[in-house]
Backbone:
């Protein structure tokens, strides 16, 4: 079978990895469908990419921000034209259903237009001086060369959250895509190039985390690292970046809870739970992996939820009638199967699913049944650890306060949802849930690009994408202009 060969993008040229080695990208719904081969890069390739980015920085930083933003605006328009093609290619390379890959591309389109507007803002702050005849202001400067490391579950949206704000702020970039999903990053960056992005402003280095990723994090001329992925890898990346005194933004895992109160609109809560737990085959950082049910509705909710989970159509995401695509690779299947075993041993009750799907239409892919566990106790591993698959735990509670305590009793803090008609409870939840995102009467998934995105505790290290991205990708410069024509000494000449 023939398939295309892709190279790294360095200084505007498409070049193979120095090693000459490649990695095959295949369709997780059908391993006989080969998407393409991509370079397996290491330190030497990263070195060249960083050199190219440093060179491009000299002129890109001087390009007026509204002009930089024009490239993003054109990118948004081109992505609109290419949306269907890119969505299909994304489904082929990582499996999620077409409706969702269209949404992924749409998120990049929304981000392009949102961030393009920033070209005419990038606001700084002016403030009075404590001295006479002196003017004070603070302006945003680009950081320099930034390294971007992205996961496979939102293969175009997440790279766009990082690339676009970095670019409008005047930085140049080296991006290392997830090994499972380089094609969507190629599609995104090719679109930037077609929209007029100068050579070297964005460079792609494909390869493994340990090969290309760690070389990028360690490179002394990379001034900031923006990483999205697991907490285990994020911890390593954060420590390594700290050794080089780099700015580092870490967006990591979740174990997101949907709380359903007795007074909730039950059908709405069911729709939300189904979408939150099994959308993207449970492979979202914001996936609903715990459903907390108040005793009064627990039995009815459980029965209806399991009935609907059983009816979900699992298959190839290119088939428009399919609701749940494959998991991205065999390792993810093993993780799901491992947690099913752990949950059983812990005494949770398997209500449906629990197995990898094999044979027939599933013979050449990595599919897992939508899986529901009941009788889950908050202390169990299945209630605390991220599965990143179509496996959800039902936990019962008596009072609202207990639900909040259970929701907060984990190491992660990304997304939370509360279903209730009680406005007082809703506001108490907004105040008390330890998470970067709280939804009221909506599922744990569904972030919009212009709000802050990120989490607390082991989910993040305090930065935000979306609304917070410009803060990460710029550094403040304080500017003092003294027009008094004499030496004025702050803290001394104006002291009483
Ligand atoms: P991952 O295994 O942590 O990988 C993330 C990225 O880091 C990939 O590009 C990976 O490369 C790279 N990497 C691996 N080891 C590295 C190292 N030593 N140095 C530098 N880079 C390294 O995560 P994933 O499996 O792709 O994605 C799933 C995880 O991402 C989940 O935990 C999910 O919750 C999290 N996530 C979080 C958010 C958020 O915004 N909070 C959003 C989406 C996903 P390879 O692909 O080559 O391994
Ligand atoms: Mg693939």
Residues:
């Amino acid at each position: 079978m023939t398939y295309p060969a892709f190279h790294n993008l360095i200084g505007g040229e498409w070049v193979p990895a120095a090693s000459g080695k490649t990695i095959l990208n295949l369709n997780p719904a059908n391993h006989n469908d080969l998407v393409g081969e991509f370079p397996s890069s290491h330190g030497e390739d990263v070195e060249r990419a960083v050199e190219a980015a440093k060179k491009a920085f000299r002129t890109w930083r001087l390009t007026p921000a509204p002009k930089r933003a024009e490239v993003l605006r054109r990118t948004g328009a081109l992505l609109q034209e290419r949306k269907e093609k890119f969505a299909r290619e994304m489904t082929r390379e990582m499996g999620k259903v077409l409706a969702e890959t269209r949404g992924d591309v749409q998120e990049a389109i929304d981000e392009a237009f949102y961030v393009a507007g920033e070209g005419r803002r990038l606001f700084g702050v002016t403030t009075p001086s404590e001295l006479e005849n002196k003017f004070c202001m603070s302006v945003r400067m680009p950081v320099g060369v930034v390294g971007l490391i992205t996961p496979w579950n939102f293969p175009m949206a997440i790279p766009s959250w990082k690339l676009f704000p970095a670019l409008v702020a005047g930085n140049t970039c080296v991006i290392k895509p997830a090994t499972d999903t380089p094609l969507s990053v190629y599609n995104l960056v090719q679109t930037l190039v077609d929209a007029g992005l100068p050579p070297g402003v964005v460079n792609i280095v494909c390869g493994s985390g340990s090969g290309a990723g760690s070389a990028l994090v360690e490179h002394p001329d990379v001034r900031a690292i923006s990483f999205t992925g697991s907490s285990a890898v994020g911890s390593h990346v954060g420590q390594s970046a700290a050794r080089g005194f780099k700015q580092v933004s870490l967006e990591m895992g979740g174990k997101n809870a949907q709380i359903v109160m007795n007074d909730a609109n039950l059908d709405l809560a069911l729709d939300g739970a189904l979408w939150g737990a099994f959308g993207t085959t449970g492979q979202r950082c914001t996936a609903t992996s715990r459903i907390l049910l108040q005793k009064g509705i627990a039995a009815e909710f459980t029965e209806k939820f399991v009935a609907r989970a059983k009816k979900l159509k699992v298959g190839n995401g290119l088939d428009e009638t399919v609701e749940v695509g494959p998991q991205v690779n065999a390792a993810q299947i093993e993780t799901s199967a491992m947690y099913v075993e752990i949950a059983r041993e812990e005494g949770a009750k398997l209500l449906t699913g629990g197995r990898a799907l094999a044979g027939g239409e599933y013979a050449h892919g990595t599919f897992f049944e939508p899986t529901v566990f009941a009788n889950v106790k908050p202390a169990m591993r299945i209630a605390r650890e991220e599965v990143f698959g179509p496996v959800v735990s039902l936990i019962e509670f008596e009072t609202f306060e207990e639900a909040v305590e259970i929701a907060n009793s984990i190491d992660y803090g990304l997304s939370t949802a509360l279903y209730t008609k009680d406005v007082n409870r809703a506001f108490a939840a907004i105040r008390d849930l330890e998470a970067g995102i709280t939804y009221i009467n909506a599922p744990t998934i569904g972030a919009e690009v212009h709000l802050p995105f990120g989490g607390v505790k082991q989910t993040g290290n305090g930065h935000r994408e979306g609304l917070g991205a410009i803060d990460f990708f710029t550094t403040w410069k304080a500017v003092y202009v003294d027009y008094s024509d004499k030496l004025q000494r702050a803290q001394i000449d104006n002291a009483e």
Remarks:
- The chain has 13 helices and 25 strands.
- The radius of gyration is 24 Å.
- The chain has two domains: 8-252+460-478, 256-440.
